[in-house]
Amino acid sequence: MRKILFACALLSILTTTAIVVSLVWESTPFFFEVSIWDFLTGTTWQPLILPRQYGVLPLVVGTLQIVVGSALVAIPIGVCCAIYLSEYASPRVRALVKPILEILAGIPTIVYGYFALTAITPALRGIYDKTETYNAASASIVVGIMILPMIASLCDDALRAVPGSIRDGAMALGATRFEAVTRVIFPAALSGITASFVLAISRAVGETMAVTIAAGATPSMSFMPTQSIQTMTSFIVQVSMGDTPRGTPEYHAIFAVAMLLFLITLGINIVANRVLSRFREVYE
Description:
mainly alpha, MetI-like fold, two-stranded antiparallel ribbon, 76% helix, 1% strand, globular
């Protein structure tokens, strides 16, 4: 059994290593053609149209818009759902609501994309008639709905993991249930809650099909949520359809963008681990 477990752990390490090696191997020729500085600081991204330009900032800005917008949707609602399920809901209500909430995680992402296109965008147009058919706001809302079950479920588990003695102590000191939740239980569970945020944000960064359908394919430095944008993942989908000749800078640009996406996600997780370790030191 020990050898089987070691083999499983080794397999995950080898898989990660293979991914990194393939990204580095395929993206290196791109940087022979385009300098890293121009790639990271350029504000025009048009790898398929002459004159070709490879400034990745519009894709980064589009990705950040989706991440921030989805977090604004999912984090408040998810935390409120978790507090209700863990502290206020009866066992019968909890047994009914939590499975229904988690069903959202099983819906294919392409379904979310068409839901955004056919339901959310028309609703946004009813509020602001200049909203484009493909827009960042619709994509942010639908990605927020997608990551909502992850935040709600993990936050609920973190809140319920707080020892009952802490709850009893807060109530014994005269705190109301709301005060006990917001001032005692929530801070004690902050490590797990923060972990749920990190996982959800990582999911939002890497989301592909829903964003490709809902947000469009227009690389733009605009921060207007009603306009079409393009994220790093949607560019990879667009160029990976088989029309780009292998070995060309346009082809290797796919892997350069993928490498940048990998580094961004890795950076988010490193920062999050430092934050989590700090919280654990405070509350252990």
